[in-house]
Amino acid sequence: MQERRISVCQVCGVRPAEEAHHCLYGKDKRFKQLNDDENLQLVCIECHKYNGGALGYENKLRFWEWACEFYGHKHMVEWHNRLPMKIKEKGYQ
User: Fold this and answer.
1) 8, 52, 53, 84: which has the fewest C-beta neighbours closer than 10 Å?
2) d(CA 16, CA 13)
3) Is this model's pTM higher than 0.85 or not?
């Protein structure tokens, strides 16, 4: 996978990125693909736990757009389509 070289939180853009947040889909032990880099947003501790900014739908869409730019739209759509989940977010296309 490509190295991101991100040192600042992808939510607030201010504090250091210290944690990985399961952004597009929450973590679920049944689906290992949710631990793929395509689903992990680099965030600060405050946005991850206290702020709630990482949990909002707007953030998910911003991250999807960023991931499509970083990995390529085709790659992200293929990754999304391979997820073995019955219900998938329709905003990620």
Assistant:
1) 84
2) 8
3) yes
